[in-house]
Structures are given as structure tokens and as C-alpha cells.
Amino acid sequence: MARAAGVSKTVASRGLAGYPDAAPATRERVRRVARELGYRASVRARLLSAGKDAPARCAVVSLGLTTAQIGRSFFGPVLAGVMARAAQEGIDVQLIALPDTGNGIAGALDRLVAEDRADGFILVTWLPLTPEDVAPLEQSGLPFVLANRHFDAYPGHPVNCVTLGWEQATCDAVVRLAALGRRTMAMVLPWRETSTARDHERGWHQGVAHTGIAAVDAPVLRMTLKPEDAASQEWARRLLTAGLPGTSQVPTALVGFNDWYALTGLRAATAAGVPVPDQLSVIGFDNAIGPATTPPLCSYDPHPHDLGMAAAELLGAALRRELESPRRVTIPLDFVCRESCGPAPRR
């Protein structure tokens, strides 16, 4: 960069840092050349030049989420789990929030690599991820772990990841409902296609096949539901009164993508005069709001703190070069029984 700007390294450094002893024209020329070359100052090099130790560093990168949203979301306990296990692994952790990924996830990660922000990364996001998104990390050779994401849709592209057992839990939900005599049911998933949504859908179809329920009586429906949204409430109310698409059979059970989806179903049931759990059983996922709903919601606990600990442990093994090939770790979910499920009414 100094050569391209026609100055010494010292002048280039001071001009880039904005020191007043570098002439304004020189500072502007240095910054212009830096932009053209894609130069980024190395955070780690700054630490070393200041005489500070530079232990292994982990960057927990939130894609599409602000730090405030992380604290209020499912990923808050995940981050706490990462911090707890990273201390045992001898890894320093920093949180990097990238709420605006309008220029692409790959571009955002490429900047982090260029700035030497970490020795390893843990990625957390609600967004879909593809191998192209993480290409800058793979090309750099830096270890990384996906938290609650995997590349099942891209055979032959394994990555280090810690996932939750959504597939097994969703299959279990169908089996539980069938054991209660529920023979018409639906699972509601969002429109956005993610590995989590695909896991739920696979588990649902496995459960339906295992119980012998006709597929037409147990469809997967795609709809983004919000408890306070009037359109969501109306859609759920019509489902409970007009019945399932194609059969008009009124569902006797609903399974939501998460607890908030399930809450939309509970409120729609109240509005439609459908008693829960007498006529309708409802199950959610995340175990986030179950005790606060009416009736208290049955849900699956994904243990997000354990997810974070496992992600930090896996990254530690990758940093120590203990992994011969990418590894996937799956955290099982536990069913928390409350009052929104019950036996089907006798005909």
C-alpha cells in the first residue's frame, strides 16, 4: 500500500490512522489507495505491536441480528454457553454483530478475515446459509463452526456444525399426538427455507409415515405467523373452522415452528371457540413462553446453552487441529408436558 501511494510505510500508517503530522493530501491519497487495494488494518497486529499477548480468539458472528436482538432471542443462552465453554478451552471470545447483510454474507465475512479479527469463528443467524456464504472462511483456512445451521441441501460439502435435534423431536411430536388419538393435524412452518425448517419437515413426514396417518390428513403448511398480526390470526382461525386444505377436515392438533407460532394457534382457537386441549392439542418448539400462555403450552426444550457450549468445544478442537474431517454434533430436545395437549374427544 505504501508503494502504491508513493510514501514510506511510516507515512502510510500515520496517514491511514489520521495523524495530523501527515499532510491532508497525503492522508487522502493513502486512504484512496487503501480502498482500491481492499486493505484492512489487522486488529491482531495492533495488539502485538502494543506488546500484548494474543491468545486464540473466537469471534461469535451474528448475521442479521443486533446485539440487543441477540440478548432477547434464542441466541442469548447460546452466547452464554459459548462464553462458559470457551473459558475452559482457553479461548478469548468477542461478539461481532452484523445486522445489515445487504451486501451479502460472504462480503461481510471477507472483511472480518481481512481485518484478522479472530483465529476461529462461530456463526449464529436466523438467515439461510449456503457454502458460498462461508467461502471466505474456507479459503482462508480459518476454523469455523455453524450454530443451528448445516448444509444438508449441499451433499458433499460437510462443515463443522452443532445442530439441534429438530428432526427427531418433530417426529416424536407426531407420534405423541397420534397416541392421544389425534388423526388430523398440521405443522406450520415459515416460508423462509432454512436447514431448521427442512429438519422439521423431514421429521414430520417420518412421524406421519410411522403412525400410518394419511399424508393428506397431516400436511405441512407454510405460513409466517405472528401472534399480534391480524392476518395471521385470521389464517389460523380459518384453518380451525374451514379445515385442512384439500380435505376440509378440521385439525385436532397443531404443531408450530416455534412457541410463537403455537401461540398464534392458541389465540385463534380461543377466537374460534375451539377448546384446548379438549378439541385441539397444540405443541410448540423452543420452550420459551410455555408457562405464560393460556393454557400453558407443551413445548420441546432445545437447550440453547448446551448448543453454545458444544460449539465452543468443537471450535477448540478445530483450533488444536484435532479433527481429521468436519464434524456435526447434534443436541437432543426434551419434551416439556404442560396443559395444551390431551386425548382426542370420543366420537
Q: What descriptive keywords fit this protein?
A:
13 helices, 12 strands, elongated, single chain, 6-stranded parallel beta sheet, Rossmann fold, alpha/beta, 42% helix, 347 residues
Layout of secondary structure:
Layout: H1 2-5, H2 9-17, H3 24-37, H4 43-49, E1 57-63, H5 67-72, H6 75-89, E2 92-98, H7 105-114, E3 120-125, H8 135-140, E4 144-147, E5 161-164, H9 166-179, E6 185-189, H10 195-211, E7 220-222, H11 230-242, E8 253-256, H12 259-272, E9 281-285, E10 298-301, H13 304-319, E11 328-331, E12 334-336
Parallel strand pairs: 1-2, 1-3, 3-4, 4-5, 5-11, 6-7, 6-8, 8-9, 9-10
Antiparallel strand pairs: 10-12
Short structural summary:
With 347 residues, the protein is α/β, with parallel strands linked by helices.
Task: Describe it.
The structure is a single chain. By secondary structure, the protein is of the alpha/beta class. The chain has three domains: 38 residues, no CATH class; 135 residues, Rossmann fold, CATH 3.40.50; 136 residues, Rossmann fold, CATH 3.40.50.2300. Helix content is 42%, strand content 16%. The chain has 13 helices and twelve strands. The strands form two sheets. A six-stranded parallel β-sheet has the order 2-1-3-4-5-11, with helices on one face. Helix 2 crosses helix 3, helix 6 runs parallel beside helix 13 and helix 11 packs across helix 12. It is elongated, with a radius of gyration of 25 Å. The N and C termini lie far apart (80 Å).
